[in-house]
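Case study 2.
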Amino acid sequence: MPGADLLSGLRVLDFSRVMAGPFCTALLADLGAEVIKVEPPGGDDYRHIGPFKEGESALFLLMNRGKKSLTLNLKSARGAALAQGLAEKSDVVVENFKPGVAGRLGVDHKTLRAINPRLIYASISGFGQSGPLADRPAYDIIAQAMAGLMSVTGDADGPPTRAGESMADLSGGLYAAWAIMAALFARERSGQGRRIDVAMFDSIFSLLPTALAQYLYAGTTPGRTGNRHPLSSPFGSFRAADGEVIIAVANNGLFARLAEAMGAPDLVRDPRFASDELRTRHEPALRAAIEAWSGRLTVAEVVEILEGQGVPASPIWTVEQAAGSAQVAFRKLLATAEHPNLGEIPLIEQPVHFSDVPRGRHAPPPLLGEHSEAVLGELLGIGRAEVEALRRDGAV
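Prediction:
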């Protein structure tokens, strides 16, 4: 992101592809890190997954903003040697190969640490670098399924359901970026790099506090509750005359305000609704009372009435409504970049606001191999003629 220099001077060698690793390194690039994306000659898999705009993958564009692209054939001895030379001059390596693959390619932690003891080496995989499932291949849906997220997502009478985004990939990338920051800070004291092992399974499992609270402390197996909160009521989506409206009440004070807004003070005196636990136990009866009121009103009317009483409520927006909202515009959650083939393109902005760090404009995602000559020349002293020879030999 032009103007963001919090990580200026940090060089990241990125062997990752698809989503988890690229999301991690995009976050680092957003804050000024130099991210060198190492791609096979055919490109990251995401370059070939739609939707497309004039031949460019939208998913690739969003996940690889602000990076440089270098093509290397790591299966060739020369390509692996070049990667090792770049690792010597880098601060961080990120990879999301299946465990064991990095070693076969000569870019594993042990090999690169011998070359650069200060290197922070982050691996992102489905189930980690060790453990009973380490060798198991995984995509996001497999991590969601096995970590427990799908078992608590969806309607009570419906099947286990995948969350609407690739949450295992994204949380794994987010945790990896967080861990890299911690490792870099520790390196300032010790002078030594370290290995980081992030698993998508672990990442999703760690994000289930509500479900694990029920299992670990109450001895119950949490199930699916649809949009309803399993531990608080009324907390979920409710029927209105023209759709569904969100009402979120998590304490007695808010419940009293809700009852007042509904013109139903008897709800507060009803012993079935005297506490959050009791309201959750008797949720069907409480829902019927609320929907008898909300069902006569539009979503907008319900929200206006409840917000007037300080009760959290909202409509359910589509992605189009959210992206076009004044909130997104004011918070600058969408950015732009000037792409060499597409002109100005929209990108996702990282969501954290730092003081004195401008937002809204990124360096563009790279074309395949766009920076190969520059990176190899500047970091390894390889001239244009030699780069062309490497291309002919299939190393670049």
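The radius of gyration is 25 Å.
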